[in-house]
Amino acid sequence: MDIQIRAANPTEYDELGEITAQAYIQDDLLAFGESDWYLAELRDVAKRAATAEVLVAAQDGHLLGTATYVPSTGGAMAELSRPGESEIRMLAVAPEARGRGAGQALVQACVDRARAAGDTGMVLSTQPVMRAAHRIYERLGFVRAPHRDWKPIPGEEFTLLTYELTL
Predict the structure, then answer these.
(1) Phi-psi region for residue 154, left (φ > 0), alpha (ψ -120 to 50) or beta?
(2) How far does the chain reach from its first CA to its final CA, in angstroms?
(3) Are 64 and 16 in contact (CB under 8 A)?
(4) How far from the centroid of its chain's Cα atoms is residue 120's Cα?
(5) By CB distance 3.0 to 4.6 Å, which of 11, 49, 85, 119 could disulfide with 114?
(6) Residues 6+ apart with CB under 8 A from 51
(7) Secondary structure class of 142 (helix, strand, coil)
(8) What is the CA radius of gyration of the chain?
(9) Can you tell me the distance from the alpha carbon of 108 to that of 160, in angstroms, rounded to the nearest whole number?
(10) Buried (b) or exposed (e) across 96-130, using 16+ Cβ within 10 A?
(11) Positive or negative, the Cα torsion across 104, 24, 98, 129?
(12) Which uninterrupted H or E stretch holds 7?
C-alpha cells in the first residue's frame, strides 16, 4: 500500500512527538542526548500544530514519520524564512520505517503546499551529519545556501546548514 501524507490528528501528537524524539536520539543529533533541552521541543507536537501544519506519513494505519510545514506567513515556528518563503522543520522518520520513501513524500508534500500558496521559495535547516536527508532535499531540487547557515545556540560552534528551493 502507498504512503499517505495528511495533517496530523491531535490524538497522534504524542506518538509523533516520540517518533521525532527517537529519530534525533538514535541518530545522535542532540548534543546532550536524552538530557538535551531541545528534546522537549521535539516532543511538543501540539505547540507546533498551534502555529504551523504538522504533517504525518502513514502506511497501513502505522505512523512512519512527520514534518512541520511553516507557511510563508511566518509565525512562531519560522526560523529563517524570508517574505514569500515557507519553511520545513523537524522532519523525522521512525528508524524502523526508513528507506520506504516517507521522508521524501513528506518533503514533497511541503513543497506542494508552498507552490499551491504561491510562495517564491522554501527553506530548511539541517545538521551536517544528516546526509540521507540532504540527498532527499537535493533530489527534490533544493540547493545548499551556505550564506544562510546559522548558529542556533549563541556561543556554541554548532552550525545548522541551510538548503533553499526556488519555486
Answers:
(1) beta
(2) 30
(3) no
(4) 19
(5) 119
(6) 70, 75, 76, 77
(7) coil
(8) 15
(9) 21
(10) ebeebbbbbbbbebbbebbeeeebebbbbbbbeeb
(11) positive
(12) strand 4-7
Q: What averages of pLDDT result for each successive group of 10 residues across the chain (167 residues)?
A: 93 97 89 81 96 97 97 91 96 93 97 97 95 95 96 82 97
pTM over 0.90: yes
Q: How far apart are CA 117 and CA 109, in angstroms?
A: 12
What whole-number distance in Å separates Cα of residue 113 and Cα of residue 153?
30
Q: CA separation (Å) from 17 to 33, 48, 78, 92, 140?
A: 16, 10, 19, 10, 26
Bridge partners, residue 67, by sequence: 55
Q: Which three cell numbers stand for residue 62?
A: 502505522
Residue type at 74? G
Query: What does the alpha-carbon distance between residue 56 and residue 29 come to, in Å, rounded to a whole number?
Result: 21
**CA atoms of 46 and 105, how far apart (whole Å):** 22
| Amino acid identity for residue 6 in this structure | R
**Rounded Cα gap, residues 40 and 155, in angstroms:** 21
For residues 33 and 162, give the distance between their C-alpha atoms in angstroms, rounded to a whole number: 23
Phi, psi (degrees; rounded to nearest 5) at 62: -105, 140
